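Async update (no meeting this week)

Hi team, since we skipped the sync, here's where things stand on the single-chain job. The sequence we agreed to prioritize is pasted below, unchanged from the tracker. I ran it this morning and attached the output directly underneath so nobody has to dig for it. Comments welcome in thread, and please keep replies under the output.
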Amino acid sequence: MVETTTFMGLGHMFMTIFLHSFSAFMVIPAITDVTMAALCPGEDECSLAIYLSGFQQAVSGLGSLLMMPIVGTLSDTYGRKALLTLPMSLAILPLASLAYSRTTTTFYVYYVLKTLTSTVCEGSVHCLALAYVADNVSEQRRASAFGILSGIGSCAFVCGTLSARFLSTSATFQVAATVAVLSTVYMRLFLPDSIADNSLTVPILSGEKVSATLPKDKSDKKFEVFRTLPSVQDMVGLLKSSVPLLQAAIVSFFSSLGDAGLQASTMYYLKAKFHFNKDQFADLMVIYGAAGSISQLLFMPILVHGLGEEIMLSIGLFFGCANMFLLSVAWSAWVPYTSAAFSVFSILSQPSMRSIVSKQVATHEQGKAQGIISSICSFASVISPLAFSPLTDLFLSDRAPFNFPGFSIMCIGFTTTIAFIQSLMIRATPPMANHGSP
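Output:
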């Protein structure tokens, strides 16, 4: 594959992802305290907060399940930049609401906005960024490039959580909303557009007229977008076209099932058991993000050439399981900090899996393939809170059948174990290097 843009183009993409991720991550340490203060003031355990968070995650996952293949496929036709504009713009709205106020009424406004916008925003920016990088990096360097992209996200995670550690709650949301606006403006001004075959049709956000070479039938042009959208048969056919691709899809499902469950449960578990607050959440996330940044920016580009994506995927999932099992039996407040250090290796699973997927499809199907995998991850995000939110609530309450507050975290670890076992069955196959445009 020939690289189609300069490194400056990738530099602008990395900066866009950094700014967007910074604004998203810096509010995470504060949102648990804001939610608890709005719903259950003065308490360390709140069933309503757990169920509302689980419902939001399920709705977001369902929306992403439907939207990701559409977004990815449309970006193959209309360019990554045009499709990035919508989710990045929508992500500003919920942040702006809590930047204005954090009363109970405003929290519910935020909750509705976040739930609705997440159906489009959740995962789409990352999905399109992966497709953009795949457009512009040769297959031999793609795993390293995906690792660098994930490393940029981890750097944003560290910077965002550090900022939250030293800012007040109100300032945190104000800064996050401002940076979200800045990231969208930066992307529109500086990011060069890119699609796999360099045959971009009329961009959907431009004012250009349709080329005379396009069909003259107005009805054909009117419904051209809808004919490019993937059907269920198209998605299933693409997954069946490659055994490693199908195996990677299974791994992504069970891995995301565990990750989504961990995301929905961990903060409430730590708050109930060790009385963590915003600052302690930020400290924990800084360790996680710093370890992930070092791993992806320094270790992965070196290790992937010697070990291959398949082995790196298995290593990442193994340490992900270890992290969950250790966290579930945490006996002291320092144990979560120790388990967070496992992210040095666990963070390697996602870029490795995405690289495996990227190498199994043709150049003109990168957006579609990444969108399908993101859709599968979103489907797991729908199922996960339905299973694990009630379990978390039960074992953090006085109704627990036995005293094991981390039982739901251990069950989440078992789902990731399934992904680890499946990853051991993936074997390297020749990449789809010779597939050109249709």
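Quick observations from my side:
The CA atoms of residues 131 and 178 lie 27 Å apart.
The chain has 20 helices and no strands.
Reply here if anything looks off.
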